[in-house]
Amino acid sequence: MAWSFLEQSGELGPPDASANVLLDAIEAQLRTGERRPLMLANRAIDAYRKDAARSRVQAGPEVSLG
Q: What pTM value is reported for the model?
């Protein structure tokens, strides 16, 4: 669900990195006992968005030439 949502919204980045973030978030939740699919997906999306924002901050500001 998380992958499809991010793909349809245009937020999905490189497949390998995106899959790692989403799967890590879902795996962490499963270890704590969470099993509800919608909750797993929503929290994975939140984790993905936080990771993407963190990556943008580390990359620095974009420069517009024109």
A: 0.84
